[in-house]
Amino acid sequence: xxxxxxxxxxxxxxxxxxxxxxxxxxxxxxxxxxxxxxxxxxxxxxxxxxxxxxxxxxxxxxxxxxxxxxxxxxxxxxxxxxxxxxxxxxxxxxxxxxxxxxxxxxxxxxxxxxxxxxxxxxxxxxxxxxxxxxxxxxxxxxxxxxxxxxxxxxxxxxxxxxxxxxxxxxxxxxxxxxxxxxxxxxxxxxxxxxxxxxxxxxxxxxxxxxxxxxxxxxxxxxxxxxxxxxxxxxxxxxxxxxxxxxxxxxxxxxxxxxxxxxxxxxxxxxxxxxxxxxxxxxxxxxxxxxxxxxxxxxxxxxxxxxxxxxxxxxxxxxxxxxxxxxxxxxxxxxxxxxxxxxxxxxxxx
Length: 349
Known about the structure:
The chain is α/β, with parallel strands linked by helices and 349 residues long. It has two domains: 4-170, Rossmann fold (3-Layer(aba) Sandwich), CATH 3.40.50; 225-347, no CATH class. Helices cover 34% and strands 19% of the residues. The chain has a six-stranded mixed beta sheet, sandwiched between helices. A three-stranded parallel beta sheet has the order 11-7-13, covered by helices on one side. Strand 4 (83-90), helix 4 (93-110) and strand 5 (114-118) form a beta-alpha-beta unit. The longest helix has 18 residues, at 93-110. The radius of gyration is 24 Å and the shape is flat. It starts with a strand and ends with a strand.
């Protein structure tokens, strides 16, 4: 079978150039495979040949997405590959944004099939668009051995013009694309069969899954806002410079609290984003965009409420387990209530 020429995109960590200290690394291109790019060739039985590997720091990619895309499009065009692969990015938001953007650009502007992989809540998954296959991955690189063959399988079938099954069959995220298929039973018969199973309490699989949402009871209203002590908090990962308590960029293992008693706003350079699921540039430029201390102080001065609490709680909601988030919220609420807080303005991203 014909060898498939591939260009592979990696961030600085998986490109073996360093960790967070190299996150501002500008994009560079090297000939041949790097890191698990070597594994891709091996598991393909030698059919895949990675011609070029593009490596870029996560911060640089997030802050210069347009410039990165232009360079990558040029490098990909020069290599004339049959397939573009990005990642896997798992739960890393900045990496995912770059991977999703580049796959969309390469597929849309060069007409080259593109495949990536990431956690379903990674913002890059939505950016990639319906023309890109995004393999569903867990939030850490421990899922690498399972994900790589899935990416490779979809990529080779795209090149060979072979059919690709449903998301449930193939392990990729739904793309919002409906495909007509021929089946032995008409729709009404299938619908009645599902209804009978549902009425009998038996398991069945719907052909049109609908989103399900948890029921969350609302908190009791603040009785008298003018006389109330109010706190602000966020799951957007706004932390003092250097992230002193090392809140994780995703799947946070903790929440923290920081003193704002003497502050009227959060100054650029004194606070930064620890969250790995959104573009950090606007928030790093003005941290009040995520944790609106400046606006809260203005309302306090206007007498809209009695007092702003002296500290704010913070965690990171990106790929954080629901049970962990529930626990953090309960702990935050109990700590604030114990200090006389009657209401919380909690911001999300």
